[in-house]
Amino acid sequence: MSMDTDAGGAESRRAFVGGLLMLGVVVATGLPRVRASTTDIAPRARGSARIDVRDHGAKGDGIHDDTAAFQAAVDALPAAGGTVNVAAGDYLIDPTRSVRLRSRMRLALAPGATLRARPNAEPKANVLRGEGLQDVEISGGRIVGERDSHLGTTGEWGHGIRLRACQRVTVRDLQISRCWGDGISAGGYMSRGRWSQPGSDLLLVGVVCEGNRRQGLTLGSYRGVRVSDCQFNGNGGTAPGAGIDIEPDADVARDIVMENCGLSGNPGAGFQLFKRAAAVTVRNCTIERNGGPGILAVAALDSEFNGNRIQGNRGRGVSVRAGSRNIRVDGNPVASSG
Question: How far, in whole angstroms, is CA 297 from its chain's centroid?
Fold first, then answer.
C-alpha cells in the first residue's frame, strides 16, 4: 500500500509494477507554461507570535540532537499560534521522535537551515509530523533524510514530512532529499481498516523532492490538493518508485491539480494514479527519463492530462489501464518513450 497503515498490499503492487506498459497516447502540441510566484501565496491563519528555536536550546551544529529544542519552541507558541523561526544551521533531528507540528503555525526555515535526520533502524520514522492539524505552513531550507546511513533493512516509511487528516497546509520553497521512504507522505486517518477522516486543502509550491527511497510525494486519502512549480527527481529504491504516487488505498483521493512540475529519473512512473483517484488534472509538466510510463492511470476517474511534455521514458508516454473512466488526454507531445 502507499500509506504507512498496512504493508499488506506491497506484494501485489510490486507484481503490478513489472507489467505496466499498455497504452501509448500521442497528440499534438503543448500549452504555454505559467509560473507561480511563492511570494503571492496567501498565508494560513495564525497568530503574530514569533519564537526562535535557538532560544530553546537548538545548537544547529550537526552534532547535538536538536529534537527537544524544536519541540519546545513549537509547544511554546500561544493558543493563537504563530511562527517558529529556524536560522541557518545544521539541525540534527531524531525522526523516531519527530518534531510534532501544531495547528495555526508556520515553521520558517532560513535558506541555509537544514533539518538532518539522525540515523535509526526503525521502519517508520518522520522528521516532521502533523496529525489532525489545521492552518500549517512549512517553508524554506532543507530536510535531509538518513537513507544513506539507515541502520535497518525493513520498512519504507521513513518520511521527511508525514501529514495525516490535516486541513489547510502549505509547504513551499523546501528541498527534501535522501529519506528512507517518501519526501512527503500525506493522507487521512484509518480506523479498523476504514478511512475515517481524509485530509483536505494541501498546497505544495516550489518544493523539490530528490533521491528519496520510495516516492517524492505520496498522496492517500485527500480532498483538494494543488502541486505547482515543484520537482520530483531520482526518487526510488523500493516499489513503486514514482515521482508522484496517488494511491488512496481503500478510500478516494480527488480534486487534485499538478501543474508546471518536473518529474525525471524516477525508476517507476513519473505520475502514478493507482486506483480510486478521481478528478485529477496533470498539466504543463515535463515528464522525462523515468523507468515506467510518463503518466500511468489505473482505475482513475474523471481526470485529464494536457499540455505535458513527455519524453525519454522507458514505458509508454501515457498508459491508461483497466477500470479508468472519463479520461481526457489532450495536447501532450510524446517522444522516445516506450
Answer: 18
Residue 180 sits at φ, ψ, to 5 deg, of: -65, -25
pLDDT tens track for 276-315? 999 999 999 999 999 999 999 999 999 999 999 999 999 9
Alpha helices (H) along the chain: 10-17, 67-75
Q: What is the DSSP letter of 70?
A: H
CA atoms within 13 A on the CB side of 338: 21
Which residue is associated with the grid cell 503490478? 16
Residue 214: partners with Cβ closer than 8 Å, 6 or more residues away? 156, 181, 182, 235, 236, 237, 238, 240, 241
What is the CB neighbour count within 10 angstroms for residue 336?
Answer: 12
215-228 residue pLDDT tens:
999 999 999 999 99
Q: Give the number of other Cβ atoms within 10 Å of residue 260's Cβ.
A: 18
The DSSP code for 220 is -
Give the count of beta carbons closer than 10 Å to the beta carbon of residue 281: 16
Report CA 269 to chain centroid distance, whole Å. 15
Beta-strand relationship, 157-164 and 184-187? parallel
pLDDT for 189: 84
Give pLDDT, residue 230: 98
Among 124, 99, 319, smallest CA distance to 214 is for: 124
Q: What's the whole-model pTM score? A: 0.89
